[in-house]
Amino acid sequence: MMSQTHIGYTYWQQPPVNKMPAVSYITAGLSSTSVPVEPSRDAKLLIPKNQTGNVFYEKDGYVSIEAEHTTKVFNTKEVSWQILPNLGRTASAITPFPVTAKAQTLSSSSPHIDYEFYAYSNGDATLQLFFSPTLNFHNTSTGLQYAISLDDEQPQVISLNVDDNQNRTWEKWVANNTIMKTSSHKLVSQGKHTIKFWMIHPGVVLQKLVVDLGGLKPSYLGPPETKF
User: What residues have CB less than 8 Å from 1, skipping those under 6 apart?
Assistant: First the structure.
């Protein structure tokens, strides 16, 4: 029989016997071993009791939204928003159709989708958007673009994939099945707020939105959805 080397509990060696990790038991109720846990804080109480439709709330300093759960959808005769079932890493994705639609000029009536949320925080906010990896198939200097705004602020135009020609960057996007883009915003008050995601180019596939209000912790898939 071929001899085998195993990983021992305390050293790398062929162990003479199996060794299990030491187990310690703690008596329930001992204050010396108790770890204080901060109570969870959320903005559910700010949501009106007669609220209907998809609405979200701040929890422990963040808001998490699956892209398919829109609050309002604004289509035009030429463009409509469609859900792509199970395309996202944690739920479904949404994108404008048709994929051959022309680039859009931003206006109050141009295609966009809204997400309403309630927050107990105010001040600086970082918005993370998660997209499906998409090539810059027009080979333009800006790549595919979208616009994002919070409440009544001027939309920020952001390039999604202009750097897809960098192999390491593209490989990372594909390995994670996502492109994550960030933008900076400000909440002027507590209460109700609206994220507006504006179409500029077709082919942009949105999976998830996360608002970091100071409490977001690193994670691979992002925090679970905070949907009311």
Answer: none
Domains and CATH numbers, the chain: 44-212 (2.60.120.1620)
Say what the pTM is.
0.83
Q: What burial class does residue 45 get, using C-beta atoms within 10 Å of its C-beta: 0-12 exposed, 13-18 middle, 19+ buried?
A: exposed
Neighbouring C-beta atoms of residue 23, cutoff 10 Å:
5
Q: Is 186 left (phi over 0), alpha (psi -120 to 50) or beta?
A: beta
Cα–Cα distance, 78 to 95 (Å, whole number)? 14
Each residue of 180-205: pLDDT tens digit?
A: 999 999 999 999 999 999 999 999 99
The β-bridge relationship of strands 112-119 and 56-57 is: parallel
Nearest to 186 by CA among 125, 136, 132: 125
Shortest CA distance to 146 belongs to which of 66, 70, 203, 215? 203
Backbone angles phi, psi at 176, to 5 degrees: -90, -5
Written as six digits, the tokens of 213 are 């209000």
Burial letters 134-152, b for 16+ CB under 10 A, else e: bebeeeeeebbbbbbbbee
In this structure, are residues 90 and 66 in contact, taking their beta carbons and an 8 Å threshold? Answer: yes
